[in-house]
């Protein structure tokens, strides 16, 4: 019997770089994040082309039963006093969950239910985050280096950004050289 061996895609755990697979890459810039940060005037003062985060993912079918695998690389920085963060989203198919694995850097994962209940989880190299269905999620980089997290989610999940048009209930700022979380009324 002649067996053939397939080289699967790989992730470099220390950097989060994906390799040996068909990859898709997307960069999200300051100019793409209108009305995401609390201080819109401070956001407008930054260079619009500045990359806030990159996502690279394996090119996978969105069919039932398939899984997407991707890595978010969220850069350090702030808009005013608020830390750089991803846009955040619910899944279009709300019942679909997701798993994040912290690879490098330090930050927070903001989770919020449809009822508005919110919580924060610390993200660091080796952390594992089970994001249940019906839960919006956003990464926040509170450190001085790139925050990278590997994510695995169902191909059918989709993204719903519009459901968070008013934002999340919690904002994370730096005040007095410390990370501070505040509940806001607009979320």
UniProtKB/TrEMBL annotation:
One of its GO terms (molecular function) is glucose-6-phosphate isomerase activity. The keyword Isomerase applies. One of its GO terms (cellular component) is cytoplasm. One of its GO terms (biological process) is glycolytic process. Coiled coil: none annotated. Its EC number is 5.3.1.9. Keywords: Gluconeogenesis, Glycolysis, Isomerase. CDD domains: cupin_PGI (cd02218). It holds the Pfam family GPI. Residues 29-183 form the Glucose-6-phosphate isomerase prokaryote domain. It catalyses: alpha-D-glucose 6-phosphate = beta-D-fructose 6-phosphate. The keyword Signal does not apply. It comes from the Bacteria. Pathway: Carbohydrate degradation; glycolysis; D-glyceraldehyde 3-phosphate and glycerone phosphate from D-glucose: step 2/4. This is glucose-6-phosphate isomerase. It comes from Citrobacter arsenatis.
């Amino acid at each position: 019997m002649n067996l053939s061996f397939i080289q699967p895609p790989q992730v470099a755990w220390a950097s989060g770089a994906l390799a040996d697979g068909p990859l898709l890459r997307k960069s999200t810039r300051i100019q793409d994040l209108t009305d995401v940060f609390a201080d819109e005037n401070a956001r407008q003062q930054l260079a619009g082309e500045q990359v806030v985060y990159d996502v690279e993912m394996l090119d996978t079918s969105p069919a039932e039963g398939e899984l997407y695998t991707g890595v978010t690389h969220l850069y350090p920085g702030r808009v005013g006093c608020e830390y750089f963060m991803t846009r955040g989203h619910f899944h279009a198919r709300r019942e679909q969950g997701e798993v994040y694995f912290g690879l490098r850097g330090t930050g927070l994962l903001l989770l919020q239910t449809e009822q508005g209940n919110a919580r924060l989880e610390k993200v660091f190299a080796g952390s594992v985050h089970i994001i249940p269905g019906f839960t919006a999620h956003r990464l926040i980089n509170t450190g001085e280096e790139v925050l990278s997290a590997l994510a695995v989610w169902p191909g059918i999940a989709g993204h719903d950004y519009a459901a968070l048009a008013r934002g999340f209930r919690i904002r994370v700022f730096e005040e007095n050289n410390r990370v501070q979380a505040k509940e806001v009324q607009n979320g």
